[in-house]
What we know:
Residues 103-125 are annotated as: Disordered. Residues 2-187 form the Clp R domain. Helices cover 62% and strands 0% of the residues. With 188 residues, the chain is mainly α. It has a single domain (2-72, 118-182), classed as Double Clp-N motif (Orthogonal Bundle), CATH 1.10.1780. Helix 4 packs antiparallel against helix 9 and helix 7 (123-138) crosses helix 8. The two termini are 16 Å apart.
Amino acid sequence: MFERFTKDARAVVTGAVEHAEKGGARTIDPEHLLLSLIDREDGRASSALAALADRRRLDSVREALVEARRHAGLSQSETEALAGLGIDVAEVVARVEETHGVGAMSGDRAPKGRRSGHRPLDQGTKDVLERSLRIAVARKDRHIGDEHILLALTARPGVPAEVLADHGVTYTSVTRALYGDGESKKAG
């Protein structure tokens, strides 16, 4: 499938690998793809993000991703659902971090002795990349671009889509920014 990726889409995946390595993550997660997209200053996805959110709002997206990672990858809606059951996620995180250190629940700690090397794509990232292919095919695009990765991230339930939506970046708004008002129907 990677042979169908444009140069920009490959750069997004490469950037995601770098984010995973820098954070000591065991796997490359959808959040790493989003962080890589935010970092980029060229490409169609970057243009769409710039049209929908200024740099300050994108920095807020980055901070929200970091906070979700500290909460074991729980989205805000999952945190609220647990609160409805009487579980205070912030309190649980505080207690775990008090004992084991900041970021202990992130799952990013690689086993001892493993600082670098190959990191596999987690299932969520595989799903995003597969969905980006389906979106490109549905649009009759020959190649998978970074814009298809962004659309796939907004279309797939999870932390990246929720954080983006909280900042006004949805599948519909990205589609509108990329293709205009006439083509905002959902693909994928």
